[in-house]
Design a protein that fits this description.
There is one protein chain. This protein has one domain: Rossmann fold (3-Layer(aba) Sandwich). Helices cover 37% and strands 29% of the residues. Helix 3 runs parallel beside helix 5, helix 4 crosses helix 5 and helix 5 packs parallel to helix 6. With 255 residues, it is an alpha/beta fold. It is globular and about 60 Å long. The strands form three sheets. The protein has a six-stranded mixed β-sheet, with helices on both faces. It has a four-stranded antiparallel β-sheet with strand order 2-1-4-5. The two termini are 34 Å apart.
């Protein structure tokens, strides 16, 4: 972690869905190269935060700002954010019937390349690249011919997301409870995929309910989210404390 540049800055963010306030004065800074983890009890606003970062509709930002490399992303749609280099991996990935995973990957990669002023990948080099990454993730290549996420097991969906993340080479990766419901083998594949992407110019925001993911993806910082705001921050030892003691003590300090 070089710590020179702030990749993500969330400033005094207030947001709501269906008139219900879910993010209340949230402040968070993630440096370039940092792995930051967000933990919190159910209903604390963890998934809402990831949806707002992704640019999902229905979530209304009332005030505050989200800066990505100093640039506000609030007015950008999902595609614009993706082209800038923001990647979201969700607990329940979207199924896209009728769109083969291979086609989806090719379209996404070439959209990014075009935005960067690079030439589109020719099919042979695209296939070679995809097959090499898939092999590392122990993915059956036949999966790539199936409709995206349709009929995939939990582990297959996670492999598919790590494959997308590896191919798209984003600068900010947000993992939203991506460990949910995974067995240890699938968890290790997700973690190995993330750890292989760690770089001085790439940051991760890992949103999780369980400390166990952080045994495999070791964070630089841990933040506790409660009632839509960060109430405590620390290093990885904070995650271990939460695993052993729960949230009661920390929440008691702020109520």
């Amino acid at each position: 972690m070089n710590g020179l540049n702030h990749m993500l800055e969330i400033k005094n963010l207030y947001a709501r869905i269906a008139e219900i306030e879910v993010i209340n004065d949230l402040n968070l800074t993630i440096k370039e190269g940092e792995i930051a983890a967000i933990m919190g009890p159910n209903g604390s606003g963890k998934s809402t935060l990831s949806y707002i970062l992704a640019g999902r509709e229905n979530y209304e930002v009332k005030s505050g700002n989200i800066l990505y490399n100093g640039q506000s992303i609030l007015e950008m749609d999902v595609a614009e954010r993706a082209i800038l280099g923001i990647f979201l991996a969700f607990q329940y990935p979207v199924e896209i019937p009728g769109v083969a995973m291979m086609e989806f990957l090719k379209t996404a990669m070439n959209a990014q390349r075009k935005a960067r002023g690079e030439l589109e990948l020719k099919i042979p080099e695209f296939l070679k690249h995809v097959k090499a990454v898939a092999a590392k993730l122990e993915m059956d290549i036949s999966m790539l011919k199936r409709p995206l996420n349709v009929g995939f097991s939990g582990g297959e969906k996670k492999r598919a997301e790590i494959l997308q993340m590896t191919l798209l080479e984003p600068k900010l990766c947000v993992l939203d409870e991506t460990d949910s419901g995974l067995d240890v083998d699938a968890l290790k594949i997700v973690a190995d995929g993330v750890n292989a992407l760690r770089a001085a110019d790439r940051s991760f925001l890992v949103i999780t309910h369980y400390q166990r993911l952080l045994d495999y993806i070791v964070p630089d910082t841990v933040h506790v989210l409660y009632k839509g705001r960060i109430v405590k921050s620390g290093d990885k030892s904070l995650a271990l404390y939460l695993e052993q003691n729960g949230y009661t003590d920390i929440i008691g300090e702020v109520t």
